C-alpha cells in the first residue's frame, strides 16, 4: 500500500478461546490478507488444533501454531521486541513503535463487550504494552489501526473512525438492498473506509443477519407463530422483532 514503510512486521493473535467461532474466523482471515498486502507476517498462535484451523480458515500452516507466544519468544530480550496491544499499556502506540518493535501481539478477545481483562494473561508474560485508546475494538480493527500507525506513520488521532455504528441489514426477503427498518448497533470502534462506512471483514454483515435470523426464528418457533399466522403477518412480526432487538442493543 502506498505510503507504508518497507520494513516487515509480524502480527500475532494469541487465540485465548478454546473454540474458533465464525466471527473470529472472518476477523483472522481479514488480518492475514491485510498483512499479506502490507508485506507483513500473520501468526495465529495458541491453537488447540492447527489442522482444524487450517481447514476452517484456509490459511497456510506457517501462520498457524499450537505453541503459545511465550514459547515463540522465550527470553526477556526477545520479548522486548514484541509489543502487546493492551488497554492497560504504558502509553499509546505511536509511529516510532514501528522501529522499536518487530512484532505486535493481540489477544483474540479484544471484541468482548463489556471488555474483559483477558489480555492480562499475556501481560503477565512480560511483553511491553501499548494502548489503542479507551474505545473497544474488534481484533481485526486493532490490527488494522496498529498497522496504520506503525507502517503508515499516522498517529491515533489522525485516523478516521466510526464509533458504535448502526449497521443496516439486508431486507428480510433476502434482497441485497438494506432495509431501513432493520439495523443492529455494533458496540465497537472501527476504521472509517473511503466510502464513509466502517471497515469490517467480508461476510460479517451476512453473519449478523444469519445470527439474528436464527434468534428470531427460534423465538417464532417457540411461540408457534410461523404456523398460526398468515405470511404477511409473519413478516410484519419478524420486522418488529428486528426493531425491538435493535432498540434494546442501542439502549444498553
Automatic annotation (TrEMBL):
<dbReference type="Pfam" id="PF04252">
    <property type="entry name" value="SFM1-like"/>
</dbReference>
<dbReference type="InterPro" id="IPR007364">
    <property type="entry name" value="SFM1-like"/>
</dbReference>
<dbReference type="GO" id="GO:0035241">
    <property type="term" value="F:protein-arginine omega-N monomethyltransferase activity"/>
</dbReference>
<protein>
    <submittedName>
        <fullName>Uncharacterized protein</fullName>
    </submittedName>
</protein>
Amino acid at each position: 500500500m502506498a505510503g507504508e514503510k518497507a520494513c516487515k512486521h509480524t502480527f500475532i493473535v494469541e487465540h485465548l478461546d478454546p473454540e474458533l467461532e465464525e466471527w473470529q474466523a472472518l476477523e483472522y482471515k481479514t488480518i492475514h490478507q491485510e498483512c499479506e498486502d502490507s508485506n507483513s507476517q500473520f501468526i495465529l498462535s495458541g491453537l488447540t488444533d492447527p489442522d482444524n484451523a487450517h481447514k476452517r480458515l484456509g490459511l497456510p500452516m506457517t501462520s498457524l501454531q499450537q505453541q503459545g507466544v511465550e514459547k515463540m519468544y522465550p527470553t526477556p530480550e526477545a520479548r522486548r521486541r514484541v509489543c502487546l496491544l493492551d488497554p492497560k499499556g504504558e502509553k499509546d502506540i505511536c509511529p516510532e513503535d514501528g522501529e522499536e518493535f518487530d512484532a505486535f501481539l493481540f489477544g483474540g478477545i479484544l471484541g468482548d463487550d463489556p471488555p474483559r481483562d483477558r489480555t492480562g494473561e499475556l501481560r503477565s508474560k512480560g511483553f511491553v504494552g501499548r494502548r489503542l485508546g479507551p474505545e473497544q475494538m474488534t481484533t481485526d480493527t486493532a490490527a488494522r489501526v496498529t498497522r496504520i500507525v506503525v507502517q503508515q506513520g499516522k498517529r491515533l488521532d489522525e485516523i478516521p473512525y466510526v464509533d458504535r455504528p448502526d449497521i443496516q441489514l439486508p431486507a428480510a426477503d433476502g434482497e441485497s438492498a438494506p432495509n431501513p427498518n432493520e439495523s443492529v448497533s455494533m458496540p465497537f470502534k472501527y476504521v472509517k473506509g473511503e466510502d464513509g462506512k466502517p471497515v469490517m471483514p467480508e461476510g460479517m454483515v451476512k453473519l449478523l443477519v444469519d445470527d439474528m435470523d436464527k434468534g428470531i426464528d427460534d423465538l417464532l418457533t417457540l411461540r408457534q407463530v410461523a404456523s398460526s399466522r398468515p405470511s404477511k403477518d409473519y413478516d410484519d412480526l419478524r420486522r418488529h422483532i428486528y426493531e425491538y432487538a435493535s432498540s434494546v442493543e442501542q439502549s444498553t
